[in-house]
Amino acid sequence: MYKTLSSAVNWPQGLPEPGTTTVVCGDIEADGSVVVPHFIQGALQETPPGGATTTVVVLVSLTQTMSHYMHVMRKMGVNLARHPGRFQFVDALTPAPVGAELAGSGMVAAATRPHFAVPDRADWSGFFGWLAHAQPPGCTVVVDGLCSLLDQGLGCDFAVGFVDTCRRIVEAKAARGAGAARLVATLFLDDFSEALARSLVRRSHYVLSFEALASGSSTEVAGQLTVVPGHLFCHIQKKERGDEEKQSAAEFKPALLHYRVSDTTVEFFSPGQSRMVL
Q1: Would you tell me how many other CB atoms lie within 10 Å of the CB of residue 111?
Q2: Which of 54, 115, 206, 238 is 20 to 30 A away from residue 224, measured at CA?
Q3: pLDDT at 49
């Protein structure tokens, strides 16, 4: 868990509040997906309110296979195979015919088979139904590689609609009061995704932007992370203005951190400080 990051953005439990949407942006020089393992690990370690429900991580990947994530998490000391039922992998990368052929041939081990597959990237209705009705209220949804929808020619409006539907499902689960449902989506920034990024800022509570330093990276500093409140968070603060207790609880200011990527974790620290063990 990244204590410095969690403290900077006022996440006491190390994760965004229930019902929120977090957008993580990066580019070719600063990969924002390095924090995906953090959200997975944090959600698996999360204790639900009153212990009345089960917390589940639903990882929707449009860029990597399940084996990739299992390998990365194992480096962090987390064996996803030991969390049956609590880690749900949605394969949105492998074409349906290929996935079915591999599964049927036995070439894919049972531990690395997806829990849900999207046969047609243009039709997510089956996934939305599965997410809304088959997953518990305490459901952290992580979408890795959202820009792949643009690469497949589905367009910005389609990607925004996908996020909107996921967000409504998550908010409905969180509204039940028994679970800590939240949405996290990673986005690769380039000339083709600028419009999508602007749209998602207006639909998010937190925006994490990974950038390379102007001076370049080094063994001590890989880049910088800027965390700003999204439009939805600003709307909440404005709505609750005047109520001192609520305003204090929701208080959040933009944060700037430097970070370093190692083989097993990501270390965050304030600019000007030396590397810290977190």
Answers
A1: 12
A2: 238
A3: 60
Q: What is the mean pLDDT of the chain?
A: 83
Q: Give the tokens for residue 17.
A: 């509040």
Q: Give the CA distances from residue 235 to residues 109, 160, 240, in Å, rounded to whole numbers and listed in that order.
A: 46, 19, 9
H/E run at residue 234:
helix 231-239
What is the token pair recorded at 1? 């868990």
Burial 56-81 (b: 16+ CB within 10 A, else e): bbbbbbbbbbbeebbebbeeeebebe
* Residue 107 exposure: Cα atoms within 13 Å on the Cβ side: 6
Residues 6+ apart with CB under 8 A from 59: 36, 40, 69, 87, 88, 89, 90, 142, 144
Rounded Cα distance, 22 and 4, in Å: 18
Residue 222 Cα to chain centre, angstroms? 21
- Of the two residues 232 and 89, the one the predictor is more confident about is 89
Q: What pairs with residue 256 in β-bridges?
A: 226
- The per-residue pLDDT for range 116-173, each reduced to its tens digit, is 988 788 899 999 999 999 998 889 999 999 999 999 899 999 999 999 999 999 999 9
Q: Which residue, among 209, 175, 215, 205, has the nearest Cα to 189 in the 3D structure?
A: 209
Question: How, if at all, do strands 138-144 and 116-117 pair?
Answer: unpaired
- Could you tell me the CA-to-CA distances from 58 to 9, 32, 71, 109, 225 in Å, in that order? 23, 18, 17, 20, 25
Does the pTM surpass 0.90? The reply is no
